[in-house]
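During the reporting period the student researcher (J.K.) took over the structure-prediction task from the postdoctoral fellow and processed the backlog of single-chain submissions. One of the processed entries is reproduced below for the supervisory committee.
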Amino acid sequence: MTAVAISEPGGPEVLVAQDCAVPRPGENEILVRVAYAGVNRPDALQRAGAYPPPPGASLLPGLEMSGEVVAIGGAAPRELLGSQVCALTNGGAYAEYCAVDWRHCLPVPDGLPLVEAAALPETLFTVWHNVFQRGLARDGETMLVHGGTSGIGTMAIKLGKLFGMTVIVTCGSADKCAAAVALGADHAINYREQDFVEAVRGLTGGKGVELALDMVAGSYTQRNLDCIAQDGRLVTIATLGGREATINVGKMMVMRQTLTGSTLRPRSADFKAMLAQDIRENVWPAVAEGELRPAMDMVFPLREAAAAHKRMEAGEHIGKIVLNVAGEG
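J.K. obtained the following structure tokens:
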């Protein structure tokens, strides 16, 4: 099969197309003929050598995909054979075939194009777990989301609005602010022109938000806490601004704030299976009914994965970037 591999740690140019053996599904796995694969920030971190795959995972990049099930392991349900699925993978989606735990798959409903199905799992699993399971989001609350036009940001907007939240986002330009509002955000703050802490306090009448979803960390950590309400929660899912932060612990105690965070890829297969089941029960009906769709940016051929990474790292995208794998020969 054709796959895109990481030749050595480095920039997008180290992504190279090569011939690889088709993986064989394990006992709890299915083999999917990949139609499309989503491109995500962890792929770029892995490529740069900053986010190594967990033990036993494929060395190929790619954490989500869609396609047709063409083989099954001994413990996988036989009725999956021939069906169309999208899946959260542990790596290996930048390839014509990918083996994945069948419990991490979701059925592609009628009316959902495979290209959009491939853009759902990574951001949906991440946002659902961090906003609703760890962040304890509730309808009627207000949420602050940084990077409002990123894959994570756009999914947070859509899920937040689907479940009755007010969503405030930050973006780096007027055009991106407008795009975020068009996607459903109630307010968009241009962080290059406004102090987002003051802006959030103003938008909430001085109260602050109940929840903030942050991918920056570093100096943003205390600033996030400064615009979170009493009993509010800060959930950090990436450290683009640095892994270390100084915070006012006394103020956090007085405000009874909660600071938490997580990474998804190293979690156990059983945990991801439970997460997939929760999504299947609580979110997937909205996908099946057409109420929830990913915000789509651009589709690149698999062999142009380097160009896809360049676009993502330049911050030019609004929504999800996807690789067309089925078009490869």
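The committee noted the following: Residues 2-120+265-324 form a domain with the Quinone Oxidoreductase; Chain A, domain 1 fold (CATH 3.90.180.10).
J.K. will present the remaining backlog at the next meeting.
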